[in-house]
User: What shape does this take?
Amino acid sequence: MDKKEILNLDAKYVWHPCAQMKDYETFEPLAVSHAKGSFIYTLDGNEVIDAISSWWCKSLGHGHDAVVAKAKEQLERFEHVIFANTASEIMSQVSERIGNIAPGLDKVFYADNGSTAVEIAMKLSLQYHAQVGNSERKKFLSLKNGYHGETILTLAAGDCELYTKPYSDIMPKIDKFEIEYCNAGVNDEKFQNYGDDAWDKVLKQLEPHAKSLSAIILEPLCQGAGGMLMYSADLLRRLRFWIKENGVHLIADEILTGVGRTGRMMACNYADIVPDFACFSKSLTSGFAPFSCTVCSTEVYNAFYDDYFTGKAFMHSNTYTGYPLGAAAAIAVLDILENGDKFNNNKNYLRDADLNSELLRSLMENVNAETNALINIRNMGYLCAADLVHPVTKEKFDPKQRTGYQIYQEAVKLGALLRPLGDTLYFMPPFNTDVQTLEKLMKITVQAVNNVVKK
Ligand SMILES: Cc1ncc(COP(=O)(O)O)c(C=O)c1O
Assistant: This one.
């Protein structure tokens, strides 16, 4: 099929995710031919740098050879069988690996997307409390500006009006609490010391809920969809302490932050804490397959373990729960993160994360030096973000101008898939993107920003 035929059929039949389809009249979708490493190749013969790891998941880029090989090996055996009452080498192996990511979180429950993994954690927490006699613990509390997925319950746990407004009448009410952010990311002095006054303000918001909470749910240290907002490891440590003291669960939504994206296996590692539940997806398979999981402790698991007719079982299931191709991809990814990347000079992406993070930051600083249009440059691991402002007045743009969206269009024309969140620009490339490509990304970003803000 040629590009025209593809786009005609696309326009006739496809309803794309997270988009006002009318926008497609003036900005046609990229017609993808293939993708490899840090690049998407179009049918026009163009090479586009995937600066956002395609919805934040391609941690090792597109079609990493080790991931492909492991998935092919599994494909030769079986691609999927019902995961209720079956066991297999691939699922046992991946479960052992995932069950060892965080000490004490050794029970792994699978699903096929991030939203469901978070919803499972919330359901598990509620059911746990009901089954151990804490029937008053029926509420959740979450952070302002959070995002946890697209099911009604996870939309309610999140705080992004853009995604929730039409459904707000039927969403359960989940209170939100406010914190202060680290505008420079890990380089912000608040990152290691949140400060007692700021903590007191948080405490005042938590205390009224202490006895009714089942769990507090949060994206540890970086709130992605809410605007790549970063906060203090010290705050997370203090929260963990309060949560434990008060018999509440902590659900760490590590869908974005986990498995290396923030430079650690879990963002929680920066605070030296272990949550009660952690949710992983995206980077876990390098975006290879719909695959997610929720991990928890044996103590939680035991509250569900009883004779069938006690009704204590966790009766959740999804068709693709425990998808073996995802499991194979996850094993390949975890091997690379633990032992180095044989296909890329044995590079160790976790060990080198802080250095690589500073490189991303310096490139973003260069973008600012050439455009004068950024504030709040912040970085953590393989993620660097900044907010767009007018180069002269330094004021934020009127959202109605859709400045970030215009930059997105310019950048795609110039050869980079940058997809700002509103007016927050960010680099979230695959961990193995080479320096030359990152420098090219920086130059394209400069040009795209200048073409829009200096118009
Ligand atoms: C922190 C966080 N939680 C949950 C999700 C939802 O994951 P999925 O899109 O796989 O349902 C996302 C997706 O971006 C996310 O960033």
Notes: Residues 70 and 328 are 6 Å apart (CA to CA). The pocket of pyridoxal-5'-phosphate is lined by residues 56, 113-115, 118, 147-150, 219, 224-225, 253, 255-256, 281 (CB under 6 Å). The chain has two domains: 31-63+348-453, 65-338.
